[in-house]
Amino acid sequence: MRGRLRAAQRCASILATLTARGAAPTIAHRPCLPQPRPNRRHRADAHRPRVTAQASAPRDAPKAIDEHALRDALAQFATGVTIICAHAGEGRYVGFTANSFNSVSLAPPLVLWSIAHRSRSLPAFAGAPRYVVNILASSQVELARRFSRPHADRFAGVAYELGWAAAPRIAGCVAWLECRHHAQMRAGDHEIFVGEVVTCHRGHGDGLVFANHRFAAARPL
Ligand SMILES: Cc1cc2nc3c(=O)[nH]c(=O)nc-3n(C[C@H](O)[C@H](O)[C@H](O)COP(=O)(O)O)c2cc1C
Asked: CB–CB of 48/19 below 8 Å?
């Protein structure tokens, strides 16, 4: 009798724990108290409640995400700022400001970035076998602004050189990476590019940072 009482208390305690965790368990309707079992193997499990997965959607299922709230949340993630450039044929170049850049792999050396489908540079990048990722210095904030807006000639007055990728390596950057096209993938309203780094260079100065919708300088705390 004492054993049956203990089993009932344990059963009630497990149920209370699951409910407190929001698990909203569905307990199969069978008495919690141990029932006679056909053999000893089942007797050990006799006190455990049967919990089955809930079939219906959780009560707190999220609504469609608010774009403004998403942008604001993502803006709390500070990034570096790059200008990614490619040869667009006949001595013309494309370049745009991007903070979607990130490192992926060291062996092989892979990086990635993404570009909006509405971007005018996308056709040139989609056909480019090579390109340059210029990582901007804090002193280059005006270039970051220029390459993010419509401009008659974004490269006018910009000091750069051409190297292995046949695209602008902008002077004064904290680093540049020349990449060979590796992979491309459609993702929502953007196209993700993965590049294999073939050559790179490290410059000097503080990097340019974009955080909370603003430019800033990357300085040690
Ligand atoms: C800090 C910053 C980061 C940006 N990052 C990206 C990015 O990663 N991908 C993208 O498609 N646009 C990005 N943009 C917007 C483009 O720079 C902008 O749309 C530009 O006009 C595209 O040029 P295009 O239409 O000539 O290709 C960014 C803008 C700023 C100011």
From this structure: no
